[in-house]
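Appendix B. Worked example

We walk through a single record from start to finish. Start with the input: the chain for 1-acylglycerol-3-phosphate O-acyltransferase ABHD5, Drosophila virilis, length 455.
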Amino acid sequence: MSGTLALPNHAEGATDVVLEAQTMDVEVSKNNGFFLWQWLYNWTSTSPTMLRAVEKKILSYLKLPYRGFFVDIGPAVGEADKIWTLSMNTESKEVPLVLLHGLGAGVALWVMNLDAFAKDRPVYAMDVLGFGRSSRPQFAKDALVCEKQFVKSVEEWRREMNINDMILLGHSMGGFIASSYALSYPERVRHLILADPWGFPEKPADSTNTKQIPLWVRAIARVLTPLNPLWALRAAGPFGQWVVQKTRPDIMRKFQHTIEEDINLLPQYIHQCNAQRPSGESAFHSMMQSFGWAKHPMIHRIKDVRSDIPITFIYGSRSWIDSSSGEKIKSQRGVKMVDIKIVTGAGHHVYADKPDVFNRYVNETCDIYKVSSGKLASPSIQLIRESTESDEEHEVPILGTTAESMEINADADIVQGMTSTATTNTRTATSGTLPVPKNEQSSVPAINLADVKRK
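Next comes the structure step. The output line below is what the pipeline stores for this chain.
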């Protein structure tokens, strides 16, 4: 495991350091010498060095120190895979929180959340294999095999990091991977937090009814279906950043209060994350039935997650993700082990649209396992939620953290904007529920979260 220590956010000289090219923390994709790939590589204007520099500029807005490094996970999918990782507050003895981003994203898009999460516990954010600065191996074409390859990469990362168990948080596609990981390695997951997760519901039978859709739209959608979701960004070549700016101005607005000096860092970062070989993106394409649905929906399997692992769903009220799956899972597993939180006014990127509310919900869930303060003993407490919670139920407190940290994933929403024609009628369904801590035998009485005073 090799790595480099990032400077504290506003340390003197940080700007100069950001622009330096250091091969020790730059993963260069292999092009195998094929001339067409070399030409395409140059046309897309992809640059690992530029990606590194832009990421460090964005992360310079964090207030707490962080460390960035590659974790060598060996031949998980490719010959020698490496996962780019950020860590914060690793000296804390609390249960660590591990973050998995969604499609087309990277670790820097958690910039609005990391400070709040890391205030009281260890936090690890990774570029999922095939995305961001991590290795870009060739995934299998079979949907279930792809899914297992993602799960294997997370497990190999955990082993190399020597993390015994964790609170696992996944957004969109990351939520799908996190759920599959909990099915395969239940002993490693203390709590599963799913933020607007993709791939949960089964594709409805009436989704094929396209009588009201113009013929030309259906024709274009059919042509574009075989292509990877973010093909347009790469096709634009050196204009990829411009494509992001024009198709997703809302993404830039989400970060404007955090990245005030240069809001164009966001489209530049998204472009550099996705102009490279579409390794993880191709794997996502293999796992999807159409953009909004998975070939093997999680709704049919989530019931098999070990009964003592609580699940928390956090949904945006305005998201294109359907939260009905969460209610179904709640009825299957019971209110004691599943909870649904709705963030009013937030869209799919719930962590960025309403970061204060999202951060509070996540921290409340993580605080269940805090032992240093003596508030709640994680294995002995059972939270009972009587109903779905919305952020309208109480005032949103001001976080006592030094950063206006919000996290945002360039996930399916980004794809949706840049391939809107192809995905006009695609609606993804996902479920949301606020999980409850592990339920083990204990003489300690059940506690209702509503009775726990927020600090």
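Two observations about the output. The longest helix spans residues 143-161. Residues 178 and 190 are 12 Å apart (CA to CA).
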